[in-house]
Amino acid sequence: MQEDGRPNMKLLKYDHQYSRRHFLQKLAAGSGSAGVLMSAWKAFAATGEVSKAYPDELLSIEGYTKGKIKTGDEINASNVELVKELLEPIRYEQILKHGRKLKIVKSTTDVMKLSPWEYIETTLKNAGKAKFNEQGNVVNAADGQPWIGGNPFPDAKTGIELLAAQTLSWGRHDASFYAIKINDVAIDGETRFRYAGGWAELNTVARVSMDPKPYWTEHKDKLRFQTVFFTGPQQFRGTSFMNVWDYDQRKFPALYGYVADFRRIRQFPADQRFEPLLPGTTLYLSDAWAAGDPLLTWGNFQIVGRGPFLAGLSGSWNADNENWEHKTHGGPKGTTFWDSTVELVPEAILVEATPTGYPRAPISKKQVWFDARNQVVVGMVTYDRRNQPYRSFDGAYSLYESGSKKFMDGAHPYWSWCHVTCSDIQTGSVTRLEQVRAIEGHTSGANDPKMYDKYLTQTALMRLGAN
């Protein structure tokens, strides 16, 4: 108490209005480094975390809501208005009207826990070495060769820099295999379709963990190989698709598919990227990692928003389930949404882009939210040709470490996505994807040198189709 009997009050030097003004000023300028009190990238490079770049009010949900919401609390219809501006409009509507809930966990400040360790180390080593060449592709500034690994623009100041880094390395591992389960839930809560299968992706350049580094010389003209295949249900068993990406982001990938009914591989039109891979799902090739198309088949990149955000960045690995499967809640049957944990991100950058290379695209634009500290995608909404909200995507990442339980990626715990919610907000259907430990002997993990021969050739497609 003060001498006059009034309670002591902590005077905030940097309150909500200060941060809001700062974000608006950067938005008006059209570019700018992440961070409020200093550059978030410089703070991380110097200390390994970014707390010094943001005021206390952006580093915890308690600080942001002035104690009205605390770590461990649940966001639901009764309190979502307190955090409305921290959510995309679709998650807000689902919480308010459809029973979706989010559990708040402590904000992660150690950026080394927000991406694969080797990717971050290589980003620190190669910072400042990237540029766009005359064709608009990211190259090593010293010799004009393909990018040499890590995030090429860790202190990104433009929308194209953010999406370029995401396109170059989706999962931030040199190679990843995800055993996946997919459930499509209709507006009435009924699960109409259930699929299982695998997704493999392998970078041939910008490699940070696997030899040869930084390039697989034989495929230096390419960016990645990527395959998705299905093991169930029975009528789709063996169906698979493979994309071979050119490094030149003006070119469409070569797209091959094995159709189980015809027992042969055929080549598909590579620009048909806005159609469901399988009946009932809301997932398109274009949607992968919010950067499923070559960068330069999109355009009009703009930063259209900045500010704090709620995202799933930790605590999402279900180590207590032998196959890592997640629980659900909400909707008419209690199965529409994943049980999810989220935390306060002090700054997210909202980037907008339009599909300039697709005259028949059913969407007019996409908006993608990036965690400004490490440029991980934390949300996406696409809009139809009438410019109305169409489909949304929000996922959860995690370090695969929980107490004494760990799933290792070499010398470090595995970091990856855990689950994704894809919502068609015009029909009310929701497609839930989760990464599980294994599907019929296909096991999730990263940087397996056998992955190319096992999943990423036409011979591999034939073999997967025959099994």
Automatic annotation (TrEMBL):
<dbReference type="InterPro" id="IPR006311">
    <property type="entry name" value="TAT_signal"/>
</dbReference>
<protein>
    <submittedName>
        <fullName>Uncharacterized protein DUF1329</fullName>
    </submittedName>
</protein>
<dbReference type="Pfam" id="PF07044">
    <property type="entry name" value="DUF1329"/>
</dbReference>
<dbReference type="InterPro" id="IPR010752">
    <property type="entry name" value="DUF1329"/>
</dbReference>
